[in-house]
Amino acid sequence: PSLLYAYDALEPHIDEETMRLHHQKHHASYVAGLEGLSTSTPSNSCLHNLLGGMFSNGGISEKDKDILARFGGGHYNHSLFWQYMSPESSKADMSPFLTDRIKSDFGSFEEFKREFNDKSAKVFGSGWCWWVFNTKQAKSFIATTKDQLNPIMDDVHNVCLLGLDVWEHAYYVKYRNERVKYIDSWWEVVNWDMVSQIHDKIALNGKQLEISDDG
Hints:
By secondary structure, this protein is α+β, with helices and mostly antiparallel strands.
């Protein structure tokens, strides 16, 4: 999928070289890997349906589950990740409902950010950190997944409000092994308008998140 902004648009927080490599090489490799599925390569909306609760889905072969966990998750996670960021990031874009959600589930934005940062930094090896809203429990929480797994794979009621890629390829060109600096800087490009839309229009209505084929 194409990006909604230029490769250098997130500078100085996310550098242009990293964005090009991340999008053109890493993300593209996950899309290519889906060709190994026994069915035709799914669109993003169909991919979402395949990933949702897939580990308990007896209708998906073990071979396809492995492909979906690696390549399907990689494609889906990155398609979300690009949308979670914007060169016009501003906390002023947070909706009142989103602000209330943070206060209700974490006490304050500072506590929410502290927990997210802590769990992101402690992901061992490669993985992701997510802010997840569970539509059945009507509550949000911070979760981490290894490799290219996603919280929706375990529970179809999970909606990913926000996610951060902490694989080294997401930050090593600029930040080397200093993941914490990358995490701190990433907050400056969070697309709070997008996060608010996911929360207000999807999570609060008990729906699931789907992404378009354009990103």
